[in-house]
Amino acid sequence: MAKRRSNGDGLLRKRSDGRWEQRLTIGTQADGKPQFKYFYGKTQKEAKDKAKAFLKEQDDGLTTEDITFGKWATIWFRDYQKRVEKSTQDGYKYTLRKLIDYFGEMPLRSIKAIHVEQFLQKMQEEGKSSSYLAKMRGMLYQVLNKAEANDYIRKNPVRFAEKMRGTGEKKPKEAFTAEEVQLMMLHLPVDKIGISIRVMLGTGLRSQELLALEPKHIEPDGSVIHVRQALKMDGGKPYIGSTKSRDSVRDVPVPEEIRPYLKRLRSMGEGTYIWESDATGLPVNPTCFRKKFRQALEKIRGVRLLTPHSCRHTYVSQLQAQGVPMETIQSLVGHADCQMTEHYLHVQDSVKTAAVEKLGNIFHIA
Predict the structure, then answer these.
(1) Most buried of the four, 40, 77, 88, 295, by CB within 10 Å?
(2) Domain region containing 341
């Protein structure tokens, strides 16, 4: 027989299937009839505890809508994509699909830290890289953080989930050695690609920033580069958009040895951009630039065939070798924080040797 509880607990009854059902009135429907929510358990206590937990969530200000992760993630992305570049949207879509495939039918309130850890473990077992695991975790955090801000959940479970440990040896980011830089400075051709490589080595510009340069972004004396935009891709087609982040908008001072090259590069900008495609007024495709970059390096014996981005790694590591403070390096390369800059550091053997030699006095016996 149905049993009415005191203190507004609702109606408690035992169902024909043996489970206990706790019913709560949570509002009124459009037609004026009461709106109910049901909680089930194997025992009276289990059903009542679920109902009490729900009421506590309401006291904490949480919404009564028990929305699924898939529905909420779709709402989140619809708002998110209005605020970012098209190229960023495309990169997020695949990751979002992976999250929805796993969490899609789960109510937001049921997702716990253990579920986050299990998901990341599954992705790692499928061979996803450490950087991609971090990307998925980051997006999941954003989705659920917005849910927390909108009172769908009391706390973001990602905040309490253990981070995945990387498997195997971490591959270091590659940079050119000081000897390789000297060979390139000496033997690269004095044409647009050769000058551009020298400029990237001497300024730490991203290739996307270099390829978006207009003559007006370079001081006439070659002393400063004003980074104000970057090359982006949309469906395989290049276009000029905003920089990678707000911190990437910066004025980069240029070493005196590089300034003559930069002045020469500035004079090569006959159209809108210094690097243009055959169709005047349109930016060059980065694939074309990477091909020219590789061809230039292939002609120099003793220089490895690294990527254009390795010039940026080289710039950071060379500054570090000269004792430049981390905060200054961060500002020069346009990183949002020092942690990102640290990923670019490459401590050279000569620097390590000099550091160890400083210990000599400790071990020296007169």
Answers:
(1) 77
(2) 178-351
